[in-house]
Design goal:
It is a single chain. The chain is of the alpha+beta class and 259 residues long. It has helices at residues 2-19, 37-53, 85-90, 157-170, 183-191, 205-217, 245-251; strands at 26-30, 33-36, 58-61, 76-83, 96-103, 106-114, 119-124, 128-131, 134-135, 148-151, 176-178, 197-200, 221-223, 237-240. The strands form 3 sheets. The chain has a 7-stranded mixed beta sheet with strand order 3-4-5-6-7-8-9, sandwiched between helices.
C-alpha cells in the first residue's frame, strides 16, 4: 500500500510540475477557497493509480469525493491532490500532494510529495518515517523559547480570529513563527525536526492524514487543540515534537471551536 501511495504521489507531482508555470483556470469554491485545473488533473491521476493497485479502495478526496465518510470494512484512502492551491496559483513555490490509507479507523500508511524540491516523505504504521529513504526524527527542542512554531490560516473568519488570539499568546513564548500555506508540508517539516510546533483550527482529513502518521512515526505527538486524543474527522489540530506538547497546552491553553 505504501508503494501505491508513493507512486501515486510522484505521478501527481509530475502533473503539478508540468502545469505550475500557468496560466491557470481558477474557480472559486468558497470563501478564500479556490480550485485549479491542476487540482482536478492530479486527483484523477492519484485515484486511477490507487484503484489500479487497490481495487477495493474507498476514496475520500478533496475535489471529487469530498462528501464521503470513512468505510468500516474497506481501505479508506485520503487524497489531497494539491495541498497549497493558493500558493500554486500565485506561483509561490510551496505545495504538495498528500495521500494516506486507513483501515478500520487506523492510519496504515501515508506519503507527502513536494515536487519542486523532490521531497518524498512517507511512513508506515510501526515502520518509521522517512524523507527520500532517510529516517526522520522530530527535534529535541525542549523549551518553548527555542521552538519554531508553524501554523496555517483558516478560511473561516471566526476561526481566523481564534487563531490570531492563540498566536498572540504564543509569539512571546517561542523563537519564531512560520506559515507555509500547505498543512501537509508543515506537518512533515515538524516530523523532520525543522520545526517544533504546529496548529490549525479548520483542517479536513485529507489535509492531515498522511502528515499525522509521519509525525507519529518520527516520534512526535498529535492531538486536538485542547489536548484530547485526535480523530481524523476533527477540524482542529495541535502537533509537536512531543517534548513541548504539555508545555504549550499549559502556557497558552487553546480552546476548540464549536463544531
Amino acid at each position: 500500500m505504501i508503494e501505491i501511495a508513493m507512486r501515486a504521489a510522484r505521478k501527481a507531482g509530475k502533473v503539478l510540475l508540468e502545469t505550475y508555470r500557468g496560466p491557470h483556470n481558477i474557480k472559486i469554491k468558497g470563501e478564500r477557497d479556490i480550485v485549479t485545473e491542476a487540482d482536478l488533473a492530479a486527483e484523477t491521476v492519484v485515484v486511477q493509480e490507487i484503484l489500479a493497485g487497490c481495487p477495493e479502495a474507498w476514496i475520500i478526496a478533496e475535489e471529487s469525493y469530498n462528501q464521503r465518510v470513512a468505510s468500516t470494512d474497506r481501505p479508506t484512502w485520503y487524497i489531497d491532490p494539491l495541498d497549497g492551491t493558493t500558493n500554486f496559483a500565485r506561483g509561490l513555490p510551496c505545495f504538495s500532494v498528500s495521500i494516506a490509507m486507513a483501515q478500520a479507523g487506523q492510519l496504515v500508511c501515508g506519503a507527502v510529495y513536494d515536487p519542486l524540491h523532490d521531497h518524498l516523505f512517507h511512513a508506515q504504521r510501526g515502520q518509521g518515517a522517512f524523507l527520500n529513504g532517510q529516517p526522520l526524527q522530530v527535534s529535541a527542542v525542549g523549551s518553548l523559547e527555542n521552538a519554531i512554531l508553524l501554523l496555517d490560516w483558516p478560511r473561516d473568519q471566526e476561526a481566523r480570529q481564534e487563531s490570531a488570539s492563540a498566536l498572540r499568546r504564543l509569539v512571546p513564548l517561542t523563537d519564531a513563527v512560520r506559515s507555509t500555506g500547505s498543512a501537509a508540508l508543515s506537518l512533515c517539516y515538524l516530523a523532520a525536526g525543522w520545526a517544533d510546533l504546529y496548529f490549525q483550527y479548520t483542517l479536513m482529513p485529507w489535509d492531515v492524514a498522511a502528515g499525522v502518521l509521519i509525525i507519529e512515526e518520527a516520534g512526535g505527538q498529535v492531538s486536538g487543540m485542547d489536548g484530547r486524543p485526535y480523530a481524523l474527522e476533527q477540524p482542529d489540530w495541535l502537533a509537536s515534537n512531543g517534548l513541548l506538547h504539555d508545555a504549550v497546552l499549559g502556557a497558552a491553553p487553546f480552546s476548540a471551536l464549536p463544531r
